[in-house]
């Protein structure tokens, strides 16, 4: 098998495994919060609080998982995450009380901290070094369908097997699908042998790659805003669309467009924007959500699809930026640990997003979207303040 074929196989396996991991964790509460709360005799916000606890755990674990990938490669870390995902989902399926519910989500949070995008990105950078932008984009192209697959499949499983059966089904998929897929990832020695020549030459940080603390803070802020808005929409998008005048059935269908829109945005980045500076792509993407909010709140239900598509496309490209911007600005050396640290604020804000944005939705209805639009504008402004040393002047603006 040629190096290019092995690379394509690795990206396909990681992308499919990421689709499973996101669908069975991040996109689970939107469909199961109500039946879980009803069965346990607790308010729905308790389920979202448990999900937020999982995100806090993932934030704390992220830097350690990244450093482990830097040292040992991504294969053992990702395979371990599948086992923990399965254990957490099985525990969730047996939850009989709120403390049990919380404990199950803590386990899922451990898996999220070592098995979602940051771990996958660190894995491909460990394999391909500075020549990883295409691989990162490829992984996100696959996983962009996580909500499109996850929401309808979870709803189907819940309708036919109950929420407990849905959790058990997702746990089984981690064992029979996710674990073998992550086993395809090359070991550290194999990764070194498969690295393309230009990637190997770029393994050490280039001169001038050391960046000031200011750039780290700005980048961490952009990631935090992006993850907060993305998580808030994942938890509340169907209800927001319904509040804007869309029927309940249509709201779920339109919300499911976010996944294909994310993929479309990533295809745009992979094709048309591929030769554009990564910072320019990120700046454009940061403006997509505010533009979609403006359309929805000005024109109401007729603009619901426009909002979903713009939000999804922007979020899709920003997800790629989470992987490519640290590589561009800091180089591949120590990438996993550094990215884990940059993502700590994002994971902590993400943890509070379902609850905090839910309060805004409860008080303001669909007008709560003005808050997320404002945050998107500040993220775009932060990206405008970041530049790459030695880049053309147009990329410094």
Automatic annotation (TrEMBL):
Its Gene Ontology cellular component terms are:
plasma membrane
Decide whether keyword Transmembrane is in the record: yes
The Major facilitator superfamily (MFS) profile domain covers 10-396
Q: Which residues cross the membrane?
A: 45-65, 77-96, 102-124, 136-157, 163-185, 218-237, 243-268, 280-299, 305-329, 341-362, 368-391
GO-annotated molecular function? transmembrane transporter activity
Tell me how this protein sits in the membrane: Multi-pass membrane protein
Superkingdom to which the source organism belongs = Bacteria
Q: Name the predominant localization.
A: membrane
Q: Where in the cell is it found?
A: Cell membrane
What keywords were assigned to this record?
A: Cell membrane, Membrane, Transmembrane, Transmembrane helix
Q: Does the keyword Transmembrane helix apply?
A: yes
Quote the PANTHER family the UniProt record gives.
CHLORAMPHENICOL EFFLUX PUMP RV0191 (PTHR43124:SF3), PURINE EFFLUX PUMP PBUE (PTHR43124)
Q: What is this protein called?
A: Multidrug resistance protein MdtL
- Could you tell me which species this protein originates from? Variovorax paradoxus
């Amino acid at each position: 098998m040629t190096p290019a074929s092995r690379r394509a196989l690795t990206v396909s396996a990681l992308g499919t495994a990421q689709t499973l991991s996101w669908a069975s964790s991040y996109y689970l509460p939107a469909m199961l919060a109500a039946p879980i709360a009803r069965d346990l005799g607790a308010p729905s916000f308790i389920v979202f609080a448990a999900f937020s606890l999982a995100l806090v755990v993932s934030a704390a674990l992220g830097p350690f998982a990244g450093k482990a990938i830097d040292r040992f490669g991504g294969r053992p870390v990702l395979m371990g995450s599948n086992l923990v995902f399965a254990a957490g989902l099985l525990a969730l399926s047996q939850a009989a009380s709120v403390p049990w519910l919380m404990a199950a989500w803590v386990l899922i949070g451990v898996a999220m901290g070592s098995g979602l995008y940051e771990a996958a990105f660190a894995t491909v950078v460990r394999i391909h070094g500075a020549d990883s932008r295409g691989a990162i984009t490829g992984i996100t192209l696959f996983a962009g369908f996580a909500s499109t697959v996850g929401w309808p499949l979870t709803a189907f499983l819940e309708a036919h097997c109950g929420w407990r059966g849905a959790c058990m089904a997702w746990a089984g998929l981690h064992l029979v699908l996710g674990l073998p897929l992550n086993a395809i990832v090359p070991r550290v020695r194999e990764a070194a042998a498969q690295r393309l020549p230009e990637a190997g030459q770029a393994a050490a940080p280039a001169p001038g790659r050391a960046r000031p603390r200011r750039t780290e803070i700005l980048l961490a802020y952009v990631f935090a805003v992006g993850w907060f808005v993305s998580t808030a929409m994942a938890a509340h998008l169907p209800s927001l669309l319904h509040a804007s005048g869309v029927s309940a059935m249509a709201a779920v269908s339109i919300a499911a467009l976010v996944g294909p829109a994310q993929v479309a945005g990533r295809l745009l980045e992979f094709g048309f924007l591929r030769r554009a500076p990564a910072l320019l792509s990120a700046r454009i993407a940061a403006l997509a959500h505010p533009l979609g909010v403006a359309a929805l709140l000005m024109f109401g239900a007729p603009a619901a699809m426009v909002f979903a598509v713009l939000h999804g496309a922007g979020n899709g490209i920003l997800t790629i930026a989470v992987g490519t911007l640290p590589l561009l600005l800091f180089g591949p050396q120590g990438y996993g640990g550094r990215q884990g640290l940059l993502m700590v604020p994002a994971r902590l804000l993400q943890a509070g997003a379902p609850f905090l944005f839910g309060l805004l939705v409860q008080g303001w209805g669909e007008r709560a979207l003005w808050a997320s639009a404002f945050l998107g504008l500040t993220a775009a402004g932060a990206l405008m303040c970041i530049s790459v040393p030695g880049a053309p002047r147009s990329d410094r603006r």
